[in-house]
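Dear colleague,

Thank you for sharing your sequence with our group. We've completed the structure prediction you requested, and as agreed, I am returning the results in plain text so they can be pasted directly into your records. Please verify that the sequence below matches your submission; if there's any discrepancy, let me know and we will rerun it promptly.
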Amino acid sequence: MKKLISLTVSAALLLAPLAYTINAPALNLKVDAVSAASEEAPAATAKPAPKATAKPAPTPKATAKPAATPKATAKPAATPKATAKPAATPKATTAPAATAKPAATTAPAASAKATAKPAATAKPVATATPVTVHKDVYQDGVYVAYGDAYSKGTEGAKVTIKDGKIADIELLRTSPKIIDRNARENYSGVWAAYGLMKDRLMGKTRDGAAAVDAVSGATRTSNGWKLSVDRAFERSLEHQAANATYFDGVHMGVDPEAKYAVFATYEANKLTAVKLYPLSATGDFVDEKTYTAEQTAAIAAITPALLAKGASAQPVAGFEAETKAAVNAFWDAEQNASINNKAAYVDGFYSSYGTARSVGVERADVVIRNGKLVDVKLFRLGSNLIDRGATAYAEVVKANAPMTAKLLANGSYIANYNEKVDGISGATESSHGWNQAVERAFEKALKTPDEGQTFDGKFAGVDNQSKVMLLVDIDADQVTGIKLSLFGADGKLIADDKRTEEQKSLVDKLTAGLLASGVQAPDIAGQEALSAAAKAALTDALTNASKVQGTYKDGTFTAYGDAYDKGTNKADVTLRNGKIVNVALSRVGMNMVDLGKAAYAEVQKAIPVLTASFLAAGTREGAQDVDAVSGATSSSNALKAAVDRAYGKAEVTETDKAAYFDGIFIGASVDKTVNVMVTTKYNVPVTMAVYYLDDKGKVRYNLTDDELLVKYEIENTSNGKGLHKYGYRAAAFGANDAQKAISAKAVEAIKAALESAGK
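Please find the predicted structure tokens below.
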């Protein structure tokens, strides 16, 4: 009989430290009662409207690319007046004083006879039932809301509210696809604003957030975040105003396939304007000057239908596919505008796995907004659970793009998946695995989680040094079966019929121990290393089955240690469930080419030692405790820094949402003749040094006048305390063609260095 292991919370924590890391900005526009120990405003006092934080910007013109921030973005308090104090609305059952019956004496006295009885005494006027006034009580939870849209996208806030205050916050600055940008892709003035605004908003009530000062140089973005936070608080109210449906302002939406963006303007709960914009294949707004005749005609035909019918608009003849996409985009905008957004999912990034087999498993990384799939990346992992990329089966590689398109067109996973209809020919099994992975990712995103800690099914687990693989059957949070396989020296699984008698006995003992005691299974004497690997593989399998999203993304992340005038140290770190499962270390020269055996002898000796140490350490914290190798202390410390920076790039929610790591980074021009060393402080580039290289990648010092001029210009246009002149959107310069050609290469090197420094 199969033995069962109950998967307890404590076991899950032992096996794989997983946690939601949810950040979100919030804006408190008034003093509100929040909970039992809340800051409570008098019931009869109306909620004050916040002061405008910026001068309103013009609304985008319909005939042009989306314009500057619409008027409503200037005022975080643009929320409809009725929503300011939703609890103040009297209940429909309240009996107003006017309904009291008139007294009997209201009949004219002249109508009575002289002998008539005195007029009856009037009955007392009934006292109206007191109006019930609700306190503004905010419900604990995670709320995502967006500010007003403009031509570059919009600001957003993912706010964790607890006891009426901001307990955690992630500030979003989105692309036109309404997907959070990498910080360095934004305007440079915004770079520092992330950290400053987060610090100012943390722990604030709604009023406290409203009073937060905008960051100088990022006023519009700061106010967009504050507006997003205020809307998040409004959505969290226990009692919504009955007559408030939409936030006033300009709201943006994009269909899952990113064909169209819609700007929908609401005023006093009414849709007053709609603007429709086609998106390019890269997810940017198409320049109006480049609109095709068909795009122009489609916009002209579909826009009035959206304005008249919104998400209920019927297909426009001749533009059926375009109408469908535009309606989906409008629906998205409407959800972003809705005060009482009913999405069952928390917006954000989620990752999950399909059903495992001995040959590997499928994984999907998704982004969900308003309950819809808006971005998805599909992976095929090998038996070691590392992405195979282009080395996967040819038919599986071919199936990736069409399956991605099918899932996006569906806007979700495919319910009741049918491999003949929904699968991609030649890769039906992988198609099913991807669909299943997306479905599980959606379940991870549920605001109200389903019962159970783990998904049911078969899940693979591998220790981080690829010694043992497990296929684990899970049902109702219990392990019902385990199949254990060993990896050979060639990195491949040893087939069951190829095992030695000793290996067969070892597999049986390890399996029995895991089934009986889980990760607490005793080590097998003489096989302590494999015993530990088997328990680590079980930890990995249970983590892959968990319904909780981890702290780090899976995948390979490249980062660098600090550079100097001989080169730098590079680490390609592969992570799964926050564990290092592969690492490739190298010493590169000034031309960014691996030096290999040309590197210092001590460094060559240190690399395999450090590689083994990082794998043995397995975690971000453990890697930093690895001892430096004697004779290669500087390179050891640089490689430890590179591993830590790789983890920084893998964070699902960045603990420090900055544009760049602080440090010294180098980059080379495409032809490897120019190197630029960039020093970053306060998360921005502050100084740069230019080097010219020979054909062997060595620094040369016999320079031409034009080379000297370019070097001088780049190196002497910064005080070392603020953003370097060429640290943002660097462009070629020069008084003649030679200088322009040299500076163009220098700019290539600058951009490469900044990419190395980027988070």
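Summary note from our side: Residues 1-120 have pLDDT under 50 and may be disordered.

Kind regards,
the structure core
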